[in-house]
């Protein structure tokens, strides 16, 4: 089994909260109940092979430096054909789990389903005084991490 890597600057993004200071005012979700519909919308795009649209749906809610997210988006766009050559086309997505830590952090984990491999996607939401926003995001090839629970 050959490994592929999606670890572009996205994994490095592990988009630190400190970068939030560089961000223009992000849109926020007013309640926790709005988070899952947003991530489902993002993953519907990813699961249809429209990675660029997935990033576009995520961008307004990013609490991190939007420039870092745009770099990751550009890298994902340019590497998409190479990824598809290794794992096949996207054929959908699946919600894996939601984990809440305290009252201010929520992580949602999904997989983008392809013909040959699952691609994990994780979103971490932080509750700011204005509402919930995406403080960290990653996707990559570490499927094993999904089982470390």
Can you give a write-up of this model?
The structure is a single chain. This protein is α+β, with helices and mostly antiparallel strands. It is 32% helix and 28% strand. It has 4 helices and 4 strands. It has helices spanning 9-13, 35-47, 51-58, 66-87; strands at residues 90-101, 105-114, 118-128, 131-139. The protein has a 4-stranded antiparallel β-sheet. α2 (35-47) packs antiparallel against α3 (51-58) and α3 (51-58) packs antiparallel against α4. It is globular, with a radius of gyration of 15 Å. Mean pLDDT is 82; it is low at 1-24.
Please give the radius of gyration in angstroms: 15 Å
The SSE string, one letter per element, is HHHHEEEE
Helix content: 25-40%
What gross morphology would you assign? globular
Mean pLDDT: 82
Placed side by side, the strands forming the largest sheet appear as 1-2-3-4
The biggest beta sheet is recorded as: 4 strands, antiparallel
What is the rounded distance between the termini? 24 Å
DSSP strand (E) fraction?
Answer: 25-35%
pLDDT < 50 stretches:
1-24
Q: Oligomerization state of this entry?
A: single chain
- How does the helix and strand content classify structurally? alpha+beta
Record field, number of beta strands: 4
Q: Tally the helices: what do you get?
A: 4
């Amino acid at each position: 089994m050959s490994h592929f890597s999606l670890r572009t600057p996205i994994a490095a993004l592990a988009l630190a909260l400190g970068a939030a200071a560089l961000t223009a005012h992000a849109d926020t979700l007013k309640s926790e109940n709005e988070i899952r519909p947003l991530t489902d919308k993002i993953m519907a795009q990813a699961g249809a092979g429209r990675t660029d649209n997935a990033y576009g749906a995520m961008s307004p809610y990013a609490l991190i430096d939007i420039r870092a997210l745009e770099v990751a988006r550009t890298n994902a766009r340019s590497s998409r054909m190479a990824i598809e050559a290794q794992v096949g086309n996207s054929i959908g997505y699946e919600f894996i789990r939601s984990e809440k830590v305290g009252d201010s952090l929520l992580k949602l984990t999904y997989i983008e389903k392809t013909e040959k491999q699952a691609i994990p996607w994780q979103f971490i939401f932080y509750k700011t005084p204005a509402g919930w926003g995406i403080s960290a995001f990653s996707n990559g090839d570490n499927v094993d991490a999904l089982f470390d629970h």
